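sry for the spam today, last one i promise. struct tokens for design, 257 residues
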């Protein structure tokens, strides 16, 4: 569920027909992802760490790849590991700068598709189909901020019963948290993201509520190195006990303007 929420929450989007190739619209995905410069691809690789924070071998999961077109709209997301390359991926289709489809694959096979309806530069509704093109869920009451980031929506099951309602918060176009309530209005998931002065997350607080338990977690991040564009290239994730959990390194490729 959270991945679908983030897909929808990250939809951004009005296209400016007369902008130059190397100029980005304020709603471009690379800006929502807090990336500077004319980014083409970001490869993020996780590594194990010891108790002192020293980097070790590459973790079996994950290598995350995000690809962007020259206008800054995301075109592909993939999550790879050593054992099963390209195990999960998502491809994104835009028309006139607005996202219209998200296709999700598992082991190379389509697992689901989200089709998004927009009108007059706004997102109106969305529906998710399974691998057999049968309706799984649909989304209505989409509200948006000035950056066309979704600030709220309702999710329905295929039989038109309410599944959940979701709200998202942003600092301009940067995601800062969300809340999901079930069909009777009970909070089942909530997150809050604290940002540093570069708009990078430094602390994420999450609450997950099930029938019997409530789980609260806090994850902190420390940034080590940056490239010439000011994008971070190494980050340490710190667990609640204060010990380093993993190190993520990013390789960022830029378009040649």
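last one done:
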């Amino acid at each position: 569920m959270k991945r679908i929420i983030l897909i929808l929450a990250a939809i951004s989007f009005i296209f400016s027909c007369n902008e130059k190739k190397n100029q980005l619209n304020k709603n471009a995905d690379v800006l929502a992802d807090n990336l500077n410069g004319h980014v083409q691809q970001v490869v993020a690789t996780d590594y194990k760490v010891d108790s002192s924070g020293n980097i070790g071998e590459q973790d079996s999961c994950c290598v995350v790849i995000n690809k962007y077109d020259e206008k800054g709209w995301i075109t592909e997301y993939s999550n790879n590991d050593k054992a099963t390359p390209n195990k999960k991926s998502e491809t994104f289709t835009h028309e006139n700068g607005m996202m219209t489809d998200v296709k999700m694959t598992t082991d190379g096979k389509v697992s689901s598709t989200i089709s998004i309806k927009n009108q007059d530069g706004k997102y109106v509704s969305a529906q998710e189909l399974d691998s057999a093109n049968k309706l799984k869920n649909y989304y209505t009451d989409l509200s948006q901020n000035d950056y066309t980031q979704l600030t709220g929506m309702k999710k329905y099951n295929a039989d038109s019963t309410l599944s959940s309602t979701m709200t998202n918060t942003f600092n301009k176009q940067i995601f800062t948290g969300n809340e999901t309530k079930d069909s009777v209005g009970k909070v089942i998931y909530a997150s809050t993201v604290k940002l540093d002065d570069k708009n990078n997350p430094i602390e994420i607080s999450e609450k997950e509520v099930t029938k019997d338990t409530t789980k609260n977690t806090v994850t902190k991040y420390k940034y080590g190195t940056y490239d010439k564009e000011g994008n971070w290239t190494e980050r340490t994730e710190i667990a609640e006990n204060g010990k380093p959990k993993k190190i993520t390194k990013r390789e960022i490729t830029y378009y040649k303007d």
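The domain at 2-254 is CATH 2.40.160 (Porin). ok im logging off now
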